[in-house]
Amino acid sequence: MAYSLADARFFFARAAGLAHRSLLSLRTRGLRTTWERVRAQLAPPPHALRRDLFLPTPAAFAPFALPTSPEPRASIVIPVYGQFAHTLACLRALAAHPPDSAFEVIVVDDGSTDETPERLPQVAGLRYHRRARNGGFIAACNDGALLARGEYLVLLNNDTVPQPGWLDALLATFDGHPRTGLAGAQLLYPDGRLQEAGGVVFDNGGAWNYGRFGDPADPRYAYVREADYVSGAAIAIPTRLFLGLGGFDARYAPAYYEDTDLAFAVRAAGLRVLYQPAAKVVHDEGTSSGTSIDSGVKAYQTRNREVFLSHRREALARLRPPHEPTPATLHARQRQVLVIDALTPQPDRDSGSLRLFNLMRLLREEGAHVVFMPAHRRYEGRYTDALRQLGVEAWHAPYAARAPAWLAEHGPRFDVVMACRHYVASEFLPLLRRHAPRAKRVFDSIDLHYLRESRTAQVCGDPALARAAERTRKQELAVIAAADTTLVVSAVEREVLAADAPGARVEVLSNLHSVAGPGLPFEQRRDLVFVGGFRHPPNVDAVRWFVSEVLPRVHERLPDVRFHCIGADMPAEIEALGALPGVEMHGYVPDITPYMEGCRLALAPLRYGAGVKGKVNLSMAHGQPVVATSCAAEGMHLVDGRDVLVADDAGGFADAVVRAYGDPALWERLAAGGLDNIERHFSAEAARGVVRRVFFD
To answer: How many helices (H) and strands (E) does the chain have?
Structure first.
């Protein structure tokens, strides 16, 4: 493609921004850490991930067992009519990679005349039910549903090979998405190509297997999405709901359009139909019914389309005319929001990531369709997948072209674009003006970088850092001037911008947390904990200062107390502090809940920084009192002695730690105040009004 002036400015701004940030990083992080960060930025994106499919090796039948449960959460119903080899492969896949969820398997034999009735009773753990006469797919499924004991009914064709983890992912859809009534798997051809990523229905009753013959890893097909229907080859539905709806509608007997009609019935009941890409199932399409619509059972597809059109005419009138679906058209009735950040959020590693992740969750709850693009275009494994499980359309290379080309294709569909961090926004804003001209432009500062940098320079007494902070100030204020709305995380930062950018529209959208609860009581808790990612220089300084200046004073009065330090990317100088008495350096911990609920006090000994501190929010959300500096408590609606203890010098900080550690009444008051603070100021409900104003007005 030919590059415009805006495109050229993007590439120049990216190179200049990387150079500036690298020089600043050299002064605050050192050569080794800076080089690692630069190398990560410049490394080419990885190639598309290819999943190796599990396909059982054909072999002669020998009895085997399924690890089923007498108290299943899910009842897997497999209707069969002949085709024993396919049924055997399906059952062997279930035996080779059993789900974590308790399950049972019910095979409904619809009058097979091959070896099915002889062999299947030899499979231990299988409930085998043979119908008196052949009635077709719908009758067999409905019979199986009446036998089901599980909370969820899972209908699975016998010509499928469910992949490892498929059932747990399918059931997780109901746990993670309220009001889900029906969930369908990602169907794959045996050669690995995509067969269906949820179905699309048109106003004439016709249907489209979205993504057919595509790449299953393509971002267009890799996120949880509402679908018009999901193929009955692999679906899950609450058993009571299925039976309450009357099962598959017999007007479509023996087969075809019954699964499409079920999806419409689920929606008519006020529930959602979702496609789940993490539930991968290989489907040998056409094994049972063939592929010709002119003969056999498949011929009912044409006849039943007319039946469906007549039955669901009112609902169909609200749908789109026939077309080739794209993400833009699939979500045309939703507010489409693009979010751009430097990296994919890693909510278990830093508070900024947690805030962004929860903001995207809140946007989804409010009905928006969210698209996420990391500036470095990398696939980040479970972090990218976590966004997709929220229902976020998360892009990465090689599917996402470089920003100018990707925005030229996708930009026109967006109603709002939010760019995070000034150095990302400064690169993208010219492109957004060109390629997303109707989109409202939102700048999310994360925290005011120039405020944090100027405070760093002041604490360090470094004139070079002060000059760098001034350059950042000019760039950040230029971005604020170019944006329609700027988000900051505290009223303190809004007041700073009232003076520095008086014409800007500024909204406060702070950290977003869920109240986890009080955790263990005072008597069952012990020790101190600090949580913070160490790519953030203020955290390095905070731990160094606490261990060297404060902890010895604490140990004079509490000699047995231990200090637990948790955080990713721990530098060698901090890791070495673990050799000191009473200090434990844990580094990255996948689940910090035991430390939040079991340690008696959390510490936030930050001497400089900006924004609001996620470590303080996190502890308070678990009912864990916090001792903090004024900097750490800034802008967080906290009152010293009610919600938090505040001290800035080493002696005062040590006194506060010892006082809160040994006073149950004070501890209880601080714990209760912290929980209330989260609910009032940092919950999703507290942020909902701002989100509606910024993204939906």
So the answer is: 27, 25
Helices 422-435 and 403-410 pack at an angle, to 10 degrees, of 50
Structure tokens at 575: 């890791």
Helices 664-681 and 614-621 cross at an angle (nearest 10°) of: 110
Q: How many residues does the chain have?
A: 697
Q: Can you give the three-state secondary structure of 13-70, one letter per residue?
A: HHHHHHHHHHHHHHHHHCHHHHHHHHHHHHCCCCCCCCCCCCCCCCCCCCCCECCCCC
pLDDT at 379: 96
pTM equals 0.87
d(CA 433, CA 441): 9
* Residue that is written with structure tokens 């299943």 in the block: 72
Structure tokens at 79: 């209707």
**Is the separation of the CB atoms in 626 and 603 below 8 Å?**
yes
pLDDT score at 610: 82
Asked whether the beta carbons of 276 and 236 are under 8 A apart, the reply is no
Chain segment 313-341, per-residue pLDDT in tens: 999 999 999 999 999 999 999 999 999 99
Return the axis-axis angle of helices 449-460 and 537-545, rounded to nearest 10°. 40
Tell me: the pLDDT tens digits for 186-206?
A: 999 999 999 999 999 999 999
Kindly give the parts of the chain with pLDDT less than 70. 1-34, 36-51, 286-299
User: C-alpha angle with apex 558: 557 to 564, nearest 5 degrees?
Assistant: 140
Q: In this structure, which amino acid lies at residue 639?
A: V
pLDDT at residue 14, rounded to an integer: 59
Q: Which residue has the tokens 């959208």?
A: 509
